[in-house]
Amino acid sequence: MMQRFTVDWSKIARKDLFLIIEYISLNNPAAAKRALQKIQEKAQQLYVYPERCRIVPELQRQGISEYRELIIDHLRVIFKITLNLVFVVAVVDCRRNLEDILLQRLLEINHENPFS
Questions:
Q1: Domains of the chain by range and CATH?
Q2: pLDDT of residue 3
């Protein structure tokens, strides 16, 4: 019997997607709408066999193998599989350096006020 997963998005991943779609819509609102639909459809398909996606190479080189990615056009949808949950943690443009983005996010987390 095939295991089915629930697909959930982190706040950061939703923000990533929003910013990407917002940027596309500046020049072409119709393309932004199509891109959003395509990303949502493809990501939702992760409910079956999310293991088919490759491990994120930059993280694997650092010994971190629990994150996988789904490539959709020029975007990387990065997720982690836990029990029956596929948790999307980021959406990143393939043309950007993932290591720089992750470092930036770590710095942002370290500067957040945990009591706010």
A1: 6-111 (3.30.2310.20)
A2: 80
